[in-house]
Every structure is written in C-alpha cells, then in structure tokens.
Design goal:
This protein has about 210 residues and is mainly beta. About 0% of the residues lie in helices and about 50% in strands. It has a single domain, classed as lipopolysaccharide transport protein A fold (Sandwich), CATH 2.60.450.10. A six-stranded antiparallel barrel has the order 5-6-9-10-8-7. The longest helix has 4 residues. It is globular and about 50 Å long.
Length: about 210
C-alpha cells in the first residue's frame, strides 16, 4: 500500500530503516554479464594482488551501471568477481546510476565513498549518502543517511542514520526520506510503483 504523507513521519526518522522498491522490476539483468570498463587519468596495476587503482576523473561502466569518482580501486577474487571502492575528491561525492529492468526508471546515489560488490550486485554508500529513484527524468523517492546499502538484485536497501551529529547534512544522525505516493507520481505510460516499507524496520541497524 502506498504511503500516506500523514502516516509515516513519526516512525521514519529513526536510526535505521529498511525499504524495498515495490513491483516486479529489478536492476537490468544483463548488467551482470557485461564487462567492467574504466576510464581514468592514471592507472596503477598490481598483478600479484590482482588490484587496479585508477585515479583522476574516473568513470566505471558495466552495462547500464555508471560509477564516477576521483579514485577507484578494483580487485578481483579467484573466481573472477570484481569489487570496487570509489572515493570522491575532497568536498565532493562519488556517484552511481543504474537502470531498472523493464522500466523507464533509474536508481542513483551519491556519497563520499562507494563500495561496489560485483558478485552480489550490492552498492554501499558511505558518509553523506543519498539514494534516489527517478521515473524518467522526474525524481520520485529520495532517502539519505550516513550509510545506505542497496541490493540491485532484490531492490531492497537499508539506511543507517549514524551516531554522530552532522553525519548527514542538517540531519544530526537521522534518516531522511521523501516518498512520493503513486497518485502524485508524474504521468507516464508505465510509472511503476512507489517505495513501500519492509517488515524488517528496526533501529540502529549496522
């Protein structure tokens, strides 16, 4: 059931929150089979450790996934799965964007550090994190916190407000969310569904 604006604020501003993108659509299925392509100003590769460090205006693409930052460290495990840690330039935030399968919708996020698990297709946004869902070019839902973890296979994400005051701009360690009711969504041929709560809501989740 879509949120009513008068029903969620009391419990929403808590230390931890678990939400899910409703509906059958998930991240683009083909992204998992796509190669990881990276552009940068410089590269340092350690063959023994299987670690590549890209620096300077780094852009990583994998199918519909686009990740940008000042530095990306990529390692590969023995099974061939790739893992990336993206850091932003001082005073800025790194970003990622991915299309949802079968929908004119995108999920995008920003934070000072982004950890990407290529095996599980999980994005972890760390410090000053914000996650948004767009229907076409219109921003539909926004959540922010100190740490946001997004599973692109299940479209479930957790938001942690953090314990330190100021970990989110103006937030004082709180989770913040703006969730658009379906009736208020921009008119489109296939508008999708809004965010809904998950039964796993709890405080102080790490």
């Amino acid at each position: 059931m879509p949120f009513k604006t008068s029903s969620f604020p009391r419990w929403l501003l808590c230390a931890g929150l678990v939400l899910a993108l409703a509906g059958a659509a998930h991240a683009e299925k083909g992204d998992r089979q796509q190669p990881m392509n990276i552009e940068a100003d410089a590269l340092r590769y350690d063959d023994l450790k299987q670690v590549s460090i890209f620096t300077g205006n780094v852009v990583l693409t994998r199918g519909t996934i686009v990740i940008k930052g000042a530095r990306i460290e990529v390692r590969q495990d023995p099974q061939g799965y790739q893992f990336g840690v993206v850091t932003a330039a001082e005073g800025q935030r790194a970003s990622f964007r991915q299309k949802r399968d079968g929908e004119d919708e995108f999920v995008e996020g920003e934070s000072e550090t982004i950890e990407y698990d290529g095996r599980a297709d999980v994005f972890k946004l760390i410090k000053n994190a914000q996650l948004r869902r767009l229907r076409g070019i219109q921003v539909s839902d926004v959540v922010s916190g100190n740490v946001v973890q997004y599973n692109s296979l299940t479209d479930v994400f957790t938001v942690d407000g953090g314990n330190q005051k100021g970990s989110v701009p103006g937030g004082g360690g709180r989770v913040r969310a703006t969730l658009t009711p379906r009736s208020a969504a921009p008119a489109q041929a296939n508008p999708g569904l809004p965010l809904r709560s998950d039964d796993g809501v709890g405080g102080g989740r790490k």
